[in-house]
Specification:
The chain is of the alpha+beta class. Helices cover 20% and strands 56% of the residues.
Length: 293
């Protein structure tokens, strides 16, 4: 009886995980600095060493916990002008709608994260001149602040300035408050929705002024398709009783080396009730080189 029970007890006992082979452990440590690399290396390590899968999972969890703690400590110690990252892009554009031409496109994007806040500053200039006469001139500057009150929820503050005489306004200021939520929050894919009330002050090229209360809604999505290819989509809509506005910006960015990327973008601006003689929709296609810093 005892001789029969002993093998049965051995079979019932869980198999002990094998230690991680030194070469595999070294490979995981080498990928620890990059979350995307770490995820891929971890999956490969478990497939090729199934007997060590539990030990590999424990090592990956320890690395991620240590990285999260180090990040929190770094964010807590940052000064006002520390921790900013971003990129600048330079290239050309082709427009259709109220203007049919080609010209120079320049942009800048800056961002900074703290433990609670994410700050984003953007600027974009499209400019073209023929024989000393300006035929395309659009300026945009904006700030967006997100205050995180939960892992996925956030409050949003938006401040924007625009100038586009060829669309029909000399200046437009927008201020918005709202609440947002990240509908999808995965390592390679994020989708966030936010909205709330807004104020807009517009000075049209006709001399008319408009100060209105509006509703604002926005969708921001980012898909890291591969290590070197990223697709992003931003759509913002201001609804008001006089003139509603829609902005859609799609960007495909391909990394060329450590700091340099190539970007192709399509921007659509739609005004529901533009000044007389102006078209509702402008489309701008840009091809630029991007330097990350």
């Amino acid at each position: 009886m005892r001789a029969t029970l002993f093998p049965m007890l051995l079979l019932a006992m869980p198999a002990m995980a094998e230690p991680i082979p030194p070469a595999v452990a070294a490979m995981i440590d080498a990928a620890a600095a990059n979350p995307d690399h770490l995820r891929v290396v971890g999956e490969i390590a478990k497939r090729t060493n199934p007997a060590s899968a539990a030990e590999i999972d424990a090592k990956l969890a320890a690395i991620r916990t240590a990285a999260a703690k180090a990040r929190e400590e770094k964010l807590a110690s940052q000064g006002l002008f520390e921790g900013w990252t971003g990129n600048g892009d330079f290239g050309g554009f082709v427009s259709s709608g109220n203007t049919e031409n080609r010209g120079l496109a320049v942009g800048i994007n800056l961002s900074k994260e703290t433990r609670r806040w994410k700050h984003v500053v953007r600027g974009q200039v499209d400019y073209q001149q023929d024989l000393g006469v300006t035929s395309r001139e659009r300026f945009f500057a904006g700030y967006e602040g997100n205050w995180k009150f939960s892992p996925r929820g956030f409050a949003v503050l938006v401040l924007n300035y625009e100038r586009d005489r060829f669309t029909g306004f000399n200046s437009r200021f927008s201020q918005a408050l709202g609440m947002g939520y990240r509908l999808v929050d995965m390592p390679g894919l994020t989708v966030a929705l936010d909205g709330g009330p807004a104020l807009r002050q517009t000075l049209f090229t006709t001399g008319a002024q408009e100060n209105v209360l509006a509703a604002r809604a926005a969708v921001n999505a980012k898909w890291v398709m591969t290590r070197n290819l990223t697709l992003s989509q931003t759509t913002t809509y201001y609804a008001e009783n006089v003139n509603s506005s829609l902005l859609s910006l799609s960007q495909l960015t391909a990394r060329l080396n450590g700091r340099l990327s190539a970007r192709l973008s399509v921007q659509i601006n739609n005004e529901s009730n533009p000044p007389a003689g102006r078209e509702n929709t402008d489309t701008v296609t840009r091809a630029t080189l991007v330097y990350n810093f």
